[in-house]
Amino acid sequence: MNLKLIKGMRLVLATHNPGKVPEIEALLGGHYSVVTAGSLNLPEPDETESTFVGNALLKARHAADLSGEVAIADDSGLSIAALDGAPGIFSARWAGPDKDFAFAMKKVEQRLEEIGAQDRSAWFTSALAVAWPNGPAVVVEGRVDGTLTFPPRGTRGFGYDPIFIPEGHTQTFGELDPAFKDSISHRARAFEKLRDALIE
Ligand code: IMP
Fold first, then answer.
1. Up-side HSE of residue 161: CA atoms within 13 Å toward CB?
2. Is the bond into 43 cis (omega within 30 degrees of 0)?
3. What is the mean pLDDT of each run of 10 residues along the chain (200 residues)?
4. Do residues 115 and 82 make contact, with C-beta atoms less than 8 angstroms apart?
5. For strand 137-148 and strand 121-131, is the pairing parallel, antiparallel, or unpaired?
6. Active site amino acids
7. Is the pTM of this model over 0.70?
């Protein structure tokens, strides 16, 4: 079997968030048309795995098998060394049902204070999986290392960006130019690996 993505083919993105489509299309170089699993009325699976890679694979396999088309899925989050990798795969869930990241960032700060942690090292991870219907799958992972700072700084970006300073820089992802962030981010690194592995 030829495990390559043929330019012009359609990919099912394993999400119900249509906002993710333009970003994924752009990261794939504009060579593919992307439809969401939500627009095909596919149900969302429970993310029952304990790793980013496991959850990305689970979501891609589920969407591919149900749709009969090649599917792509991502799973990402922030891991903090002093918290044994938390929030990790629970990064979105720490923000609660209202997706309140000011609250999630406060929670991170409080947890670090509670245990008196001095170590502020952290990293973002992005796992990307592509699965063929009832067939094989490929998964890659990208990571960017950095340190945390409190209080949050900057209004650009999203999620945990305002508390994360990437290695070698002094500004947070919430302050840095988004185009620059996109060039060094965990997601960019994962897509680079995916392109090397799957695009002819
Ligand atoms: P997912 O969409 O279920 O993979 O959840 C990923 C969560 O991780 C998001 O809701 C964000 O909180 C966090 N996250 C992932 N990537 C980034 C990033 O680049 N900046 C800030 N937060 C991120």
1. 16
2. no
3. 86 92 88 95 96 98 98 97 98 96 98 97 98 97 98 96 98 96 94 90
4. yes
5. antiparallel
6. 75
7. yes
- Give me the residues paired with residue 147 across strands: 121, 165
Q: What is the pLDDT of residue 1?
A: 62
Q: Which residues pair with 165 in a beta bridge?
A: 147
Query: Domain 10-198 class?
Result: alpha beta
Ligand 1: list residues with CB < 6 Å: 75-78, 91-92, 124, 157-161, 173, 185
Query: Which residue type occupies 128?
Result: L
Rounded Cα distance, 154 and 187, in Å: 20
Location of structure tokens 């996109």: 182
End-to-end CA distance of the chain: 14
**What is the three-class DSSP state of 100?**
coil
The two tokens of residue 115 are 């245990």
Domain residue spans of the chain:
10-198
Q: How far is the CA of 1 from the centre of ligand 1 (A)?
A: 33
84: helix, strand or coil = coil
Residue 159: what pLDDT?
Answer: 96
